[in-house]
Amino acid sequence: MSSIYSSTAMLPSFPSSSSRSSSSLTPRANMSSTSNQPDAPTVLGFGGVSVDLLATVASFPKPDDKIRSTSMKVQGGGNAGNALTCAARLGLNARLISKVANDAQGRGALEELQADGVDVSFFVVSEEGNSPFTYVIVDNQTKTRTCIHTPGSPPMIPDDLKSSTLVSALKGVSLAYFDVRLHETALVIAHEEVSDIKSHIQANRRSIPILIDAERLREGLDEFLHLSDYVVCSAKLPQAWSNAPTVPSALVSMLLRLPKVKFVIVTLGSDGCMMLERSIAAEDSQAEEMDVDNMVEQLKQKIDSVKSGPTCVPSDITILQAKGVGTICGRLFLGKAEKIPELELVDTTGAGDAFIGAILYDDQINNF
């Protein structure tokens, strides 16, 4: 099984599947990470790092079944670990804050991240308890995965991070990423990033932009959404959070209710992705008005005309209307995913994390 930490690309420029190494938790001497470049932008991530135990099966078992796996692998995983590994491999300076125990799994995960160029010097390492781990059942028939997660113990708490450590971790950071796990500690960091802490580290006084992975409704998500500049969502999250009738209208609702957010992206699996970007400059102009669902249908017709390869089709700056929700001035983007031949497709584990890693890279390179 390929992995984020050792895989080739599933999408163009997106290291693609799940966890971090191809066969074990030991670092690999032939890693080709381009991270740790002095002049590259620095991103800071906070969130989940775990050990994944991946069992591939011919088909998912029924209740009370006993079956055999076709392969078994132990790899590093976790949303933040995967996304920051992708960012490091693409060339950013990537720092990661999380917590593991001083056990074989925790030490292996740290070594593996370091081998890919991720700075783990701000990790909290507990001398007792266990590192987080996840059982992953990979269904070879449907090419899907089922995850059963066991959190680390003891859990990370705000007191685990000293103020001086946090100041050092934020030094020189141009973008921060959160997967909204360990939310109590994560919110402490996020509030520091939107404060004047940069003045204490002799940098300019603007806030550090925040990108969050809104994977599902969870404790702390609402507060994070209001602190964020960029949001990447799973397919079901926008409607679950907004109660809007369609995904496009849900994106309009999110930008209306979250005035700080510049864009929202929703990943749609094999159907690609959709992005709504706020446009402030054109709000008083003569921009065309159009129903947002109709706009999506127009973009789908354009994207369907592209016969090969992944592509992205943007709308013009438009006043987008969502029935029962409101209007927003912005641009809608529809992304077409690369179609992977079935024989080459392993599974979808970690594909969303790799997507976010590429978004981190794209944002920083385009704004560097």
Q: What do you see in this structure?
A:
It contains nine helices and 20 strands. The protein is an alpha/beta fold and 368 residues long. The strands form four sheets. Strands 3, 6, 8, 12, 13, 14, 15, 16, 17, 18, 19 and 20 form a twelve-stranded mixed β-sheet that branches. Strand 15 and strand 16 (273-278) form a beta hairpin. It is globular. The two termini are 35 Å apart.
The low-confidence parts are: 1-35, 196-206
Strand content: 25-35%
Largest sheet: 12 strands, mixed
End-to-end Cα distance, whole Å, is 35 Å
Would you spell out the secondary-structure blueprint of this structure?
Layout: E1 9-11, E2 14-15, E3 42-46, E4 50-57, E5 71-77, H1 79-90, E6 93-97, E7 99-101, H2 104-115, E8 118-119, E9 124-126, E10 133-139, E11 144-150, H3 163-170, E12 175-178, H4 183-193, E13 210-214, H5 221-227, E14 230-233, H6 237-242, H7 247-257, E15 263-267, E16 273-278, E17 289-291, H8 292-304, E18 311-314, E19 318-322, E20 326-336, H9 351-367
Parallel strand pairs: 3-6, 3-12, 4-10, 6-8, 7-9, 12-13, 13-14, 14-15, 17-19
Antiparallel strand pairs: 1-2, 4-5, 10-11, 15-16, 16-20, 18-20, 19-20
Concise description?
The chain is of the alpha/beta class and 368 residues long. The protein contains 9 helices and 20 strands.
Question: What are the defining features of this structure?
Answer:
368 residues, twelve-stranded mixed sheet
